[in-house]
Amino acid sequence: MQNCVIKPIDAGMLAECAAVIRTGFGTVAAEFDLSEQNCPTNGAFMTTERLLADYQRGNVMYGLYDAQSLIGFLQLEKKSEQRVELKNITVLPQNRHSGFGKMLLDFACEEARKMGASCLTIGIIEENTVLKNWYAQYGFAHTGTRLFAHLPFTVGFMQYDL
Question: Minimal CA–CA distance to 56: which of 20, 122, 10, 118?
Fold first, then answer.
């Protein structure tokens, strides 16, 4: 972990980032039986074009690199003066359980503070209790749920006060 660095992503790196997001989210898509047909907006089906649209809207993106290899990703979207949303945070499956997720989350919190936010929010698959508990252990509070007609799961919302 000592050779890892988090770097800003520019538009020329988005294809590689989209591939990392697809791989990272792919394990959860398989676990929850998500497909491109029943959940096309899930990260497991991320396209470079969709990521580029987020980038062009001003979302900031960062990659986690181990030497020269991209092993993780996160995206931040400023939703209001007080709130930044964390999106598409992932670590490649072979690099999980080594502290990289926490490293990305610590970085996201610091960047959100620099953006002037007082809280960082995230939407997750509510039924993913492992992920929900991981965020709760970090200090995120569960703030509610919502059913969306186009999604085959309940979205759970969590917030971390900065």
Answer: 10
